[in-house]
Amino acid sequence: MNPNAGSPAQSDPLPSWNNGASKQAIIEYVAKVTREGGPDFMRPEERIATFDNDGTLWCEQPVPVQFAFALDRLKALASAHPEWKETQPFKAALEGDLKTLAQSGERGLVDVVVATHAGMTTEEFQRIVKDWFASARDLRFKCEYSAVVYQPMIELLTYLRANGFKTFIVSGGGIEFMYAFAERVYGIPPEQVVGSSCVTQFMMGPDGKPVLMREAKINFVDDGSGKPVAIYRYIGRRPILAFGNSDSDLPMLQWTAAGAGARFMGLIHHTDAEREYAYERAVLGSLNKALDEAHAHGWTVVDMKRDWKRVFAFD
Amino acid sequence: MNPNAGSPAQSDPLPSWNNGASKQAIIEYVAKVTREGGPDFMRPEERIATFDNDGTLWCEQPVPVQFAFALDRLKALASAHPEWKETQPFKAALEGDLKTLAQSGERGLVDVVVATHAGMTTEEFQRIVKDWFASARDLRFKCEYSAVVYQPMIELLTYLRANGFKTFIVSGGGIEFMYAFAERVYGIPPEQVVGSSCVTQFMMGPDGKPVLMREAKINFVDDGSGKPVAIYRYIGRRPILAFGNSDSDLPMLQWTAAGAGARFMGLIHHTDAEREYAYERAVLGSLNKALDEAHAHGWTVVDMKRDWKRVFAFD
């Protein structure tokens, strides 16, 4: 798959990317770090690539997928929690009042996630999430959520792996939520998924078999400055390539950039209201400081409208 | 390397193991889970193998290697901490009074580790640990610590990987301490090392480059019931094979055993005072309840004296 080794007639590894600066930057980077004996060569074990998930690998609008899951769970569990009808942020969430819900801030969103993701074993949680994915549909595109992944990014993941990279997700989303689809959708196995987590307890189940019980308590939030911390704790190496789409990815990109040797930092810029969404300053996914830094340091800013021939496989 | 595929004349993949029940159990297990179409076949991605480190992959007597490191660091840092001369457990540690130190319990041991492992960046810590490994010598065998690894276990790791297993360390030891040697000594890359961790903060260093700063605060203790919790959080799959040597490995073995399909649970029993050590009820590494469970459930108990032809490569 090394683009230097093939003939000019070889097939394009990134067919959903328009020819232009972003695609060229990716291909040139991969070529130089895989060229044995070249000045920028990186050994395969150093080829660690980390990707944010929401807004980087799949669509995060109008609400992140995990939050859509939490809202559906809240409705399913509401009859057992009559108090939710009178208490914010649950009242707003049950009524679909996203504006009031957003006003409750990160704290309110976390409350809804925690209330709907705890009190079951890890195996039960996997079953619940998988069942939900089978029936839930994206609000705008009316397809399964696993279809609102960005086709150009799937091609990029495949291309990197074909060139000896190990691809990781490093997301603010829940790690166990991602376990339910990351391998099937992205080809990324659970041991290469890094995310936020709740406290889990090992205990003996009623049948005498041990279980891991999920508690309504945050263990770690893998967002912002938590991302490089988690990368080091999970992967133990500094990525040489990282992709994000918001200010909460900036520390990951900064930490990637600060390593020795050739580095690649990429940002997805959501500029395509027609095929996807155009946003920079949403409640979640705000892109502000990271965009300034990308321009200042020459990181690759992928303009979705300009750079992607197709956004989704169904386009 | 599939033992079913080769001729009888093929070389022994476990030459440092005596022929006997333990070696036979390992070889039969690997054969049956790798036999395509067989009733016990496990797909390669399911072949997750987890190993405790201290006392399972290398020697943990008279004190675990990381604790020897902590004691050396304590001496190196003592001049900047005159208060340690008057305060336990530091006083006992500095005086080499291991008995008094042991009486301070796990809390005392943790205090010494935390005091000597914090207040530097993750990169500085890696340098310190690597430098220490280059000069430190095992108290009894007078060799580098990286030489007191069990040769039969190195062969087992290699044999498993040759049969499509992914090998992980799941240790109560510090994850960053293990990053410094796991790949070189065991062939296990940092992204397959799970261990205890301290709180780490992302911040801008004096040169404007971001660093990860190690704080004197425990983040997670990967021991006992923490091991299955960490396995799920780091690996996201249940191991099909696990090896430990003490009661603190029992939850990992129980959780491994409780999965569907063919499983392998192994315990190293330290029975060889001549070539290594003989112990069951040490302060660290107590093997009591786990041994009873192993016998009750037919897990493989490796008797070091009986089962291992060689203990160390230098034997």
Describe the protein's architecture and organization.
The structure is a homodimer of 315-residue chains. Chain A has 315 residues and is α/β, with parallel strands linked by helices. Helix content of chain A is 37%, strand content 16%. Chain A is built from 13 helices and 7 strands. A 7-stranded mixed beta sheet of chain A has the order 4-3-2-1-5-6-7, sandwiched between helices. In chain A, a hairpin with a 5-residue loop joins strand 3 and strand 4. The longest helix of chain A has 14 residues, at 21-34. At the A-B interface, helix 8, strand 3, strand 4, helix 10 and helix 11 of A face helix 8, strand 3, strand 4, helix 10 and helix 11 of B.
What keyword list fits this structure?
homodimer, 315 residues, alpha/beta, Rossmann fold, 2 domains, seven-stranded mixed beta sheet
